[in-house]
Fold this sequence. Notes:
Elements: E1 4-5, E2 12-18, E3 21-26, H1 27-46, H2 63-86, H3 89-94, H4 109-127, H5 131-155, E4 170-171, H6 191-214, H7 222-238, H8 264-283
Parallel strand pairs: 1-4
Antiparallel strand pairs: 2-3
Helix pairs in contact: 1-2, 1-5, 2-4, 5-6, 5-7, 6-7, 7-8
Amino acid sequence: xxxxxxxxxxxxxxxxxxxxxxxxxxxxxxxxxxxxxxxxxxxxxxxxxxxxxxxxxxxxxxxxxxxxxxxxxxxxxxxxxxxxxxxxxxxxxxxxxxxxxxxxxxxxxxxxxxxxxxxxxxxxxxxxxxxxxxxxxxxxxxxxxxxxxxxxxxxxxxxxxxxxxxxxxxxxxxxxxxxxxxxxxxxxxxxxxxxxxxxxxxxxxxxxxxxxxxxxxxxxxxxxxxxxxxxxxxxxxxxxxxxxxxxxxxxxxxxxxxxxxxxxxxxxxxxxxxxxxxxxxxxx
Length: 284
């Protein structure tokens, strides 16, 4: 079986030690930082272009910095609680002290998305900003974070795909090399890269084209709708190539399905697709 050897990339970019204390900057943390900064600049950028909104921007560009703080809290709190509630509720109910240990990993996009929704809703109300217009701006910024986040997943050799004999299959280290019925090294779909391309590059390019070439911001909710439907569809498709979540795999359910043969990621994506289509139709 042909495969691509996983690149030897350490999860830490660098480590600084001060006696007994050590600080490490990890690729995953850098992905969050870069994604949030790019998103912040995109939001501030469209707020400087009244023509994109039909004449009047929904908020002053300088407010984007204050909004960023709220978004960071929404991503971290929502992403962590989403992972706890959607993927491992039993474990965290038995070990509640583990919930706050976000540095050990365990974040869910759908939870982070809900966290951002709540944070942006409250912030918009406090600052008198039209909520749907703000949602459009945040949807435009989201693919940048998704792109870098999925690249970090690949570097961390996590959330890999199902076994494959395709020539671009990757032999991930550790448990990723163990596949039932496969003798020797097992290559897997680099599903993290599939998501980076679909959810990050492709979806981001579509939204930028729609905003800067087609005037989508003039129709409140359209950018948000395309993002929701686009992300949901991309995630639903990639789940066919992504390894099932270990906590849902049992001897009686080796495929890890949670509802009607679907993975948890697919189940959570269906409401996003439906809601996105509703926003698109409403904007028309």
